Amino acid sequence: MVEHRGLGRVVPYIILTLGVAIVAFPVYLCFVGSTHPQEITANGQMPLTPGPIFFETYYKTLFVGSSGSTREPVATMLVNSFIMACTIALGKIAISIISAFAVVYFKFPLRMAAFWLIFITLMLPVEVRIYPTYKIAADLNLLDSYAGLTIPLIASATATLFFRQFFLTIPDELVEASKLDGAGPLRFFWDTVLPLSRTNIAALFVILFIYGWNQYLWPILITTRDDMQTIVIGIKKMIVTADALTEWNVVLATAMLAMLPPVMVVVLMQRWFVKGLVETEK
Amino acid sequence: MQKRAIFGGKSLPYLLLLPQLFVVAVFFYWPASQALWQSFLLQDAFGLNTSFVWFENYKELFEDTGYYRTMLTTAVFAIMVAGLSLSLALLLAVQADKSIKGASVYKTLLIWPYAVAPAVAGVLWIFMFQPSLGVVAQGIRAMGWNWNPLLNGNDALTLVVLASTWKQISYNFLFFLAGLQSIPRAVIEAAAIDGASPARRFWTIILPLLSPTIFFLVVVNIVYVFFDTFGIIDAMTQGGPSKATETLVYKVFFDGRLGGNLGSSAAQSVILMIMVVALTAVQFRFIERRVAY
């Protein structure tokens, strides 16, 4: 690189370290708070180092639930979140990859109309049609069910566009070769397109898993029973029940547990995460 | 746009499209049209009678100073989050782009907040800034500033902005880093040989070449503040105190809750839809332009 002299050499390290510290500080405090008894925290006397009740708090949070309310233990919420995130991610990938395959590899009346119908949903996020969507889900008996949590979110213009772009880069010779070998469209899809799409599917899965895990508005509308809650909405309800009685150690432990899976996914699958994030936004 | 070599087959493509089109029709187009229809209806207080009132709901909305206030709050919120998170992310990305040791470790340590749910980010920040028990809040109050986001609207908005910015830095950082890495080194080195100082190189070469990324991120950040901050607001302030942190989306949710004012809520939804269409159009025009770069 260009020039590096004296003090200038350490500046990037100082700024980046400060940046990392600022970004990590809220989570560090959250962890510390989850290891101190609630009386100490509630009095505003929490020390800045981890306290003595790590195991008690996390055991209680996961398997017993907070005492002041009838809330389910967080283990149930984690299971719900896992089911929701995986179903949304896999469902979006599955229905988008076959839609994109149909649009790219077939010629049929209304092909472009179908493509545009999917594309325009980009402009209709849940937030602009909150109550009518809720009403339909209620009419279809989807309240408090995994189907209700996932199916309404499973269409994906972004994923369809992403696969379409990718299919357009697959050389035509591959189709011709499969046709010569006597393969039909489904065979070609299964034997050629799907294996070629592996890294794209992985990248998309990482992004969509995080998307599904972090859903908030839709689960809050569609679930009323405690045992159907996801962890992200469960944690909010723990705080609301009378401020003074908030069991901060349990709330903060829940926050840690809610962050852990998606953050691990980003850190461990960073390559796919970056690919998915950068390429789906194009 | 289409392939040369394609498959025949009359019904197979329709079958392949069916699942997606079904979900889209039932859960996107039908509710969206319902929102449009409801925005022209007025329900009486008991929900017994509904009458068609043309643009009455819209008229009421635009005569309500509260609606303008919510628009202003949303705009201020968006400008502050975009400004703060873009400049911090750019600062960090420029440092990470230099040839330093452990660049990839720094990168990993900076991008993970993307994965934190907005509502959880809200909980983390309220815990630090809650006036009676928050560690940071106590520091602020010890300095003599009567910090209280539970009562003071400006404090609450500041807090929501901080939490939203914290979550968004990682996203902007990644895109800035990708943008910086695509700038040819030769250009920068040539300027350095000509004697341009680092600051001058940044303002006259790096920043202009980064402008497509900046523009793209501004739009994405606005969309983020409009829609994705719902969880942050609901976990931290519920739009309060006295509506100081209420965004347009939060108002749609709040006004229609428990069947409150569905007509007005639907009218607001329609206005939001128009805004999303406009934002998306801007974004796509920009992408077309970028292809030409």
Kindly estimate the percentage of residues of chain B that lie in beta strands according to DSSP: under 5%
Would you identify the CATH architecture of the largest domain in chain A?
Answer: Orthogonal Bundle
The average pLDDT score of chain B comes to 85
Biggest sheet: strand arrangement of chain B = 1-2
CATH topology of chain B: MetI-like fold
Number of strands of chain A: 0
Tally of structural domains of chain A: 2
Give the structural class of chain B: mainly alpha
The ordered H/E elements of chain A are HHHHHHHHHHHHHHH
Envelope shape of chain A: globular
The outline of chain B comes out as globular
Q: Percent helix among the residues of chain A? A: 55-70%
Topology overview:
The complex is a heterodimer of chains A (282) and B (293).
Chain A: H1 11-33, H2 38-42, H3 54-64, H4 74-105, H5 111-120, H6 130-139, H7 146-150, H8 157-168, H9 172-180, H10 185-196, H11 198-213, H12 217-222, H13 231-240, H14 248-268, H15 270-280
Helix pairs in contact in A: 1-14, 3-14, 4-5, 4-8, 4-11, 11-15, 13-14, 14-15
Chain B: H1 12-38, E1 41-43, E2 50-52, H2 56-63, H3 65-97, H4 103-111, H5 118-129, H6 135-142, H7 153-181, H8 185-193, H9 198-228, H10 230-236, H11 248-256, H12 262-292
Antiparallel strand pairs in B: 1-2
Descriptive account of the structure:
The complex is a heterodimer of chains A (282) and B (293). By secondary structure, chain A is mostly helical. Chain A is built from 15 helices and no strands. Chain A has helices spanning 11-33, 38-42, 54-64, 74-105, 111-120, 130-139, 146-150, 157-168, 172-180, 185-196, 198-213, 217-222, 231-240, 248-268, 270-280. The model of chain A has no long low-confidence stretch (mean pLDDT 86). Chain B is an all-alpha fold. Chain B has a single domain (56-292), classed as Orthogonal Bundle (MetI-like fold), CATH 1.10.3720. Helices cover 73% and strands 2% of the residues of chain B. Chain B is built from twelve helices and two strands. Chain B has a two-stranded antiparallel sheet with strand order 1-2. In chain B, strand 1 (41-43) and strand 2 (50-52) form a beta hairpin. In chain B, helix 9 (198-228) packs antiparallel against helix 12 (262-292).
